Amino acid sequence: MRHLLSINDLSASDAIGILDTATELARINDGQVKKLPTLRGRTIVNLFAEDSTRTRISFEAAAKRLSADVINFSAKGSSLSKGESLKDTAQTLQAMGADAVVIRHSASGAAQRLADLEWMSGSVINAGDGTHEHPSQALLDAFTIRKHLGKGASDLKGLRVAIVGDVLHSRVARSNVLLLSMLGADVVLVAPPTLLPVGVESWPATISYDFDSVIPNVDAIMMLRVQQERMSDLFFPNSREYSRYFGLNSERMSAMAKHAIVMHPGPMNRGLEIAADVADSARSVIVEQVTNGVNVRMAILYVLLAGGPLEVGSN
C-alpha cells in the first residue's frame, strides 16, 4: 500500500489493520512512551490548499510523534496563491525530499492526480478533496465507533449508523458510507432531498427524510456541518426550518437508545445542525474524535511508510 486516496483503496482487512494499529499506538501513547522513532529521518509535507484546523494539526502531531520532520505548506502566502500549478508545487516538494505529502485541495480528484501522474515518488494521503472523499476522517470515525460500540469485535457488524445533514457537500459522508458499510455496519442517510447528491441511490446506504423515525433505531448519529460556503443556491428555506427538521437537539437526543453516541466531524454550526447542549453532553464523543484522529493518522503514516500494520503487543 503506497497511497491513501480513497476508501476504495482499502480492503476490509486493510482498514482493520489500520484501526488495530491505531489501537496499539493509543495504548503505547497512553503509557510512558510519548514518541516513537519509527519515521526518524523521514519528511512529511502537509500541503493544504484549503483551510483546516483539526486535520492539519492532527497530521502534524501524528508525524511528530513518529519522529518525522514536518513541513507545513499552505496555499496562502505560497506560490499556489500566485497561480503556480499543482504539478510545479509537487515537483518542488519532490526536490526537497518529501517522503509523503498530505494534501487537502478544493478540487475533487486533486490527490488522485498527484499520485497518478507520479509527479513525486513519495506517498500521497488525501486529507480531503473537494466534495469527493476524506478517508482519514472516516477511519477515525470508525475507530471511535468501534471503541465505544464494537464490544471487542474487529469490525462493525450489527451496528447501525445515521449520517445526518448536508450529504451533498460532504466528503466525510461519502468516505464514511464506503468504510462503515465495508466493515459491516448498516448506514442510513438522513437529509432533505435537496442536500443529497445525484446518484446517492447507488451508495451502500438507505435513505430517509424523517429524522425522528430513525433516531431510536441507531447506535450512532453522525451530524454533518451545513457547508454554507459551498452553497450558491437556496437548499432549504432558512436556518430555523432546517434545524426544526434535521437538527439534533436535546429532545431528539432523549429519544436515542441508551448506549447510542453523538458524533460530528467538526467544525460545528452550534444551533443549526446540532444544539450546544447536545454537543457538550455526556453522549457526545466529538472531542474524543479529535484525540482518536491523532492515533489513526499515526497509524496511516505507520502503515504507508513503515511497511505495514503494527503487530498487537508491540512496544
Automatic annotation (TrEMBL):
NAD found in the keyword field: no
Catalytic activity of the protein: carbamoyl phosphate + L-aspartate = N-carbamoyl-L-aspartate + phosphate + H(+)
Q: Which residue intervals define the domain Aspartate/ornithine carbamoyltransferase Asp/Orn-binding in the entry? A: 157-303
Pathway listed for it is:
Pyrimidine metabolism; UMP biosynthesis via de novo pathway; (S)-dihydroorotate from bicarbonate: step 2/3
CC per GO annotation: cytosol
Q: Which SUPFAM superfamilies match?
A: Aspartate/ornithine carbamoyltransferase (SSF53671)
Q: What does this protein do?
A: Catalyzes the condensation of carbamoyl phosphate and aspartate to form carbamoyl aspartate and inorganic phosphate, the committed step in the de novo pyrimidine nucleotide biosynthesis pathway.
Q: Which residues form a coiled coil?
A: none
Q: Keyword Transferase on this protein?
A: yes
Q: Which domain of life does the UniProt lineage start with? A: Bacteria
Question: What are the recorded GO MF terms, alphabetically?
Answer: amino acid binding; aspartate carbamoyltransferase activity
UniProt-recorded name of the protein: Aspartate carbamoyltransferase
- Quaternary structure? Heterododecamer (2C3:3R2) of six catalytic PyrB chains organized as two trimers (C3), and six regulatory PyrI chains organized as three dimers (R2).
Which family would the database say this protein is a member of?
A: Belongs to the aspartate/ornithine carbamoyltransferase superfamily. ATCase family.
GO terms classed as biological process: 'de novo' pyrimidine nucleobase biosynthetic process; 'de novo' UMP biosynthetic process; amino acid metabolic process
Q: What is its EC number?
A: 2.1.3.2
Residue ranges of the TM segments? none
The organism named in the record is: Candidatus Planktophila vernalis
